[in-house]
Design brief:
Distance between the termini: 67 Å
CATH architecture of the largest domain: 3-Layer(aba) Sandwich
Shape: elongated
Radius of gyration: 25 Å
Order of helices and strands: HHEHHEEHHHHEHEHEEHEHHEE
CATH topology of the largest domain: Rossmann fold
CATH superfamily of the largest domain: Vaccinia Virus protein VP39
Number of strands: 10
Oligomer: single chain
């Protein structure tokens, strides 16, 4: 690792920190030693771009490079930095704060480290590692998630609200008695119908999520997958969802998957988003105002290959009603 000299101009040191991407790299490498490929996954840039920035940082003495076989690993080592450079980095780092972009970096870093741990366990686990590899070779990797869907009660009716092209309906239909897929877009609904035509228990209905074409208290569960951020009034949609959920046998369940709060404002124009994701407080508030209860919110593990914001899953239940003839519309 090249050491910064005492006579190196302060402008050179500042120049190395002038690019926002290099600040993100230093912040990551201060916490973990990472390969070029791992860094590229976290910051979602081509490896060639990441390599160029890492070379500039290494040439400037900001990071230590370590070769392991054909891979190169980088790390910020405070003790290798002259006092002046160390003080400069500490000052700059303190001004970074915690922006949504840096929060996304942290989530993706956690995903990369989890992948690394899985790889390590597979390699060093001997028999366990051999079994995992054998099982994957024989059966693939998707069967576990699909098999766990069998935990769903087979007699359930599930509403797929804002079904789009029917991905959710297709996945869940083999495990339940009936799926009602709803979308206001005729082309989307036609695609969903074609996708699910061989399943036999999926009924596609045109309709707006603010006025669902579904009877009161008639479904056991409703799923809303990456839809709420497109809608002006999430509470109104969730209240309609609550209306159609059963109010006996523990109460029907609503499941929402959507984006965590982010700052990608261009999504409003390029993708028609009305909301830039939702945090736990806002989603819990929406559920409560819609008359749903027992809300749970959990951020999903970040897929390092994904290029979008983080995702969460939130669930809530319709409150029990002693008299089934009572209205299920919140006041």
């Amino acid at each position: 690792m090249k050491r910064l000299t005492a006579i190196q101009p302060i402008t050179d040191r500042l120049g190395a920190l002038a690019e926002p991407i290099r600040l993100r790299l230093l912040r990551l490498l201060e916490n973990e030693e990472l390969s070029v490929g791992e860094v590229a996954k976290v910051v979602q840039l081509p490896q060639s771009t990441v390599s160029r920035h890492l070379k500039l940082l290494a040439d400037g003495g900001w990071v230590r490079k370590r070769a392991v076989g054909t891979a190169s690993f980088y790390r910020v080592v405070h003790d290798d930095l002259p006092v002046e450079a160390r003080q400069l980095w500490v000052t700059v780092r303190s001004q970074l704060g915690q922006t949504p972009e840096l929060a996304d970096d942290d989530r993706r870093l956690a995903g990369v480290l989890a992948e690394r741990r899985d790889d390590s366990l597979s390699f060093f686990g001997r028999l366990a590692g051999e079994w995992d590899e054998l099982r994957s070779n024989l059966f693939g990797t998707a069967f576990t998630a699909d098999a766990l869907l069998s935990l769903l009660p087979a007699e359930w009716t599930v509403a797929d609200l804002g079904c789009g092209t029917g991905n959710g309906s297709e996945r869940i239909a083999p495990y339940v008695e009936r799926v009602i897929a709803v979308d206001q877009s005729e082309p989307m609904l036609a695609a969903a119908q074609k996708r699910c035509e061989g399943l036999g228990n999926v009924e596609c209905r045109p309709g707006r999520l603010e006025a669902l074409p579904i009877e009161d208290a008639s479904v056991d569960a409703a799923i809303i997958l990456l839809v709420l951020h497109h809608l002006d009034d999430p509470v109104k949609v969730l209240a309609e969802t609550r209306r159609v959920l059963r109010t006996d046998l523990g109460g029907g369940v609503a499941l929402v998957v959507d984006m965590t709060e982010h700052d990608r404002t261009e999504f409003r124009e390029t993708l028609g988003h009305r909301h830039l994701g939702f945090d736990e407080e806002s989603m819990t508030g929406f559920m409560e105002r819609a008359g749903l209860t027992r809300t749970r919110y959990r951020e999903l593990p970040c897929d390092p290959e994904g290029k979008g914001p983080g995702l969460f899953v939130a669930t809530a239940r319709a409150p029990l009603v002693a008299d089934p003839t009572e209205s299920t519309t919140p006041e």
